[in-house]
Amino acid sequence: MRWVTQEERETIWEELAGHLADHAEALEEAGRAAEEAEEMAVEAMGDPEEIGEALRRQYPWRWWWLSRMALILNVMVCGSLLVGLLYEPPPLLDNLACRFFPTWQGSDLARLGGFDRVERLDIRERVSSHVVYIYGVGLTEDGPAEARAAVTLCVYDTSLLAGPAKVPYGSIYWETDTVDGPYAPMEQERYYLLRDIPVRRGDETVTVVYDTAGGTARIQVPLPWEERP
Prior knowledge:
By secondary structure, the chain is of the alpha+beta class. It has helices spanning 6-29, 34-45, 48-58, 61-87, 91-100, 109-112, and strands at residues 117-127, 130-141, 146-157, 172-175, 180-183, 191-200, 205-212, 215-222. The chain is built from 6 helices and 8 strands; from the N terminus they run H-H-H-H-H-H-E-E-E-E-E-E-E-E. The strands form 2 sheets. Strands 1-2-3-6 form a 4-stranded antiparallel beta sheet. It has a 4-stranded antiparallel beta sheet with strand order 5-4-7-8, with no helix packed on it. A hairpin with a 4-residue loop joins strand 2 and strand 3 (146-157). The longest helix is centred in the N-terminal third of the chain and has 27 residues, at 61-87.
């Protein structure tokens, strides 16, 4: 049986040993001594060479080839499913990722770099059946009084089984005390990055506006200024 794996070999051996044990036990219950029952059970199994030949016919080389091909196909299918989950996750997984691990698919300001300071945030605002989740803010100072900010956010549905939140273009933008910003470019279906927001040292927050037919939210995002003596 050179075409079977070690695991298959052990399974076959356990099955044969089980048959012998059952037969010997039945003979003992019929009144045979234990040693005699074992000998009779072995004899009843037949010629070992004939048993081996029968097993070789049952597990020919084609068995080995087919079993390996099945293993390879299983690995390929599982790999394809994993890639699909990573790049196009189902609604439930995508919704949970946006709720709890937004940097998995959305922008992570710490990884993007180019910021003097980055802070993780957890600001959530419900608008109708959507939740706007602001999870990061970055700040780069351009001079003594001027700087540029960036905000990362995602939008998810309150229902775990709902598909990606459908946000019309132009529904997300920023405001400061002096200027209104452009609309947020959409990275994926529910992840957004607002960047190059001009701010001044006196500005404590940036306002992120979410404006849709279902309602409007104006969310104050604190800026991570470095304290000066």
